[in-house]
Amino acid sequence: MADLSEIEMRILSEMEEGYQDFPMLIYKTTERSGNLEEVAAVQDAVRTLIRRGLVVLEMSSLATGGRSVSQDEAERVINEIVTHLTFLPDTKVWADRRSAVGPPYFQIPVPEMELTEAGEKEAERILEERGMWWWHAKRA
């Protein structure tokens, strides 16, 4: 599949290992500066990957398990994710505050992304072409 952006390719390659939550995608695919522009870049990329049928989104919690959502609901969730995120500068991690509510913890559904069959094929192609974590050299 042509014309994927750098961040879209990073996301697909990271997701090849399995589902990912939004904060982990930010952590694994950006410079981890705490800048909201990084969040926006991942939001844009995830929206595009969902529209292209490479990624699906579900809302997941320990209490309810996973629940698939429509493309329209997925877009709404991705648009609103920034209102739930906080940056932890000591660890350079974005956290979804909904996961910290409790005890019991992890009761509020949070978005998780998973590759579709087409997304898996594209992730494999990218990894064969570029290798794992090709962008990490850019962090140094």
Task: Describe the protein.
This protein is α+β, with helices and mostly antiparallel strands and 140 residues long. The protein has a single domain, classed as Arc Repressor Mutant, subunit A, CATH 1.10.10. The protein has 6 helices and 6 strands. The strands form 2 sheets. Strands 1-6-2-3 form a 4-stranded antiparallel β-sheet. It has a two-stranded antiparallel sheet with strand order 4-5. A hairpin with a 4-residue loop joins β4 and β5 (93-96). α1 (6-15) crosses α5 (117-130) and α3 (36-51) packs antiparallel against α4 (71-80). The model has no long low-confidence stretch (mean pLDDT 91).
Number of strands: 6
Q: Report the helical percentage.
A: 40-55%
H/E order of the elements? HEHHEEHEEEHH
Strand order of the largest sheet: 1-6-2-3
- Terminal CA distance: 29 Å
Q: Which consecutive residue ranges, at least 5 long each, have pLDDT under 50? A: none
**CATH fold topology:** Arc Repressor Mutant, subunit A
Characteristics:
140 residues, alpha+beta, Arc Repressor Mutant, subunit A, 4-stranded antiparallel sheet, two-stranded antiparallel sheet, 6 helices, 44% helix, globular
